[in-house]
Amino acid sequence: MLNNEVINLGIILVGALIGALKLSIETRCNKNCLSSFIDTLLGWFTGSLLGFHFGAENNIYISGLIALSGGAVGALAISSIIEIFPSIFKKVLKNIVINK
Amino acid sequence: MLNFIFGKDTKSVRTFNFITSFGWLVIIVFALYKPNTVALPHIMLENYVSQLIFASLTCLFCLLSFTAVDYRRRLFKVMCLLLGSLFQSITAVYYVTIYPPLDLMLLVCSGFALWFFLAVLYIIRYEGLRDVK
Q1: What is the 8-class DSSP label of residue A100?
Q2: A34 to chain B nearest CA, in Å?
């Protein structure tokens, strides 16, 4: 039966999947298949989680937008962390070594 | 259509994203220390930790996107706009009311969320996220 809850569930899950897939496909050439698949799953999980936690039942469009953005953020999270942390550690270590 | 909305690049959108996120950060901190001065929805004040985290991450990635180069710059640009879109849509949810059905802040925050998401699509379309080594 198509009631509000089922529609809300569907929009959040589909929105999260679309967001995760889109960003995962865009960064595909930097990684192998398994990494892309894990990024997609992570994005889907993140988007669904955020959509269900922060979404509003009487405003499904915003829930869908939250799930979409959340899915995309989740798919890019690992790539971003990999890009940020090595350079920060390098700078910190360099400063420590130079000061000593 | 994306070219018409954003022109040559998304610098203005990212600057606006940084300003709005930083502004919300200041407003939420202010509302926590002086509760009767700023009128925020009580649900937002109950979930202030997540709001502060999202606003801080958005500001951080905005600053990183202004200072990084090449592939990292594009990645941080997309991340900051996605986080900004997420933050604005979560803020919009806190203004959802049963009656009247459309609050002004709901429309404004939803509009910003959509604008930032379109900027992400612009970056993906015209600049790409592929790190060609």
Answers
A1: -
A2: 17
Is residue B131 packed enough to be buried (19+ CB in 10 Å), middle (13-18) or exposed (0-12)? middle
For residue A2, give the DSSP letter: -
With CB atoms and an 8 Å threshold, state whether B96 touches A62. Answer: yes
Task: Please name the residues in contact with B40: beta carbons below 8 A apart, sequence gap of 6 or more.
Answer: B27, B28, B31, B94
Which residue of chain A is at minimal alpha-carbon distance from B106?
A62
What is the full per-residue pLDDT of chain B (133 aa) written as tens digits? 777 777 777 888 999 999 999 999 999 988 888 877 777 888 888 888 999 999 999 999 999 888 887 888 888 899 999 999 999 999 988 888 766 667 788 889 989 999 999 999 888 888 877 765 4
Cβ separation B117–A59 shorter than 8 A: no
User: Predicted ipTM?
Assistant: 0.84
Give phi and psi for A63, each to the nearest 5: -60, -40
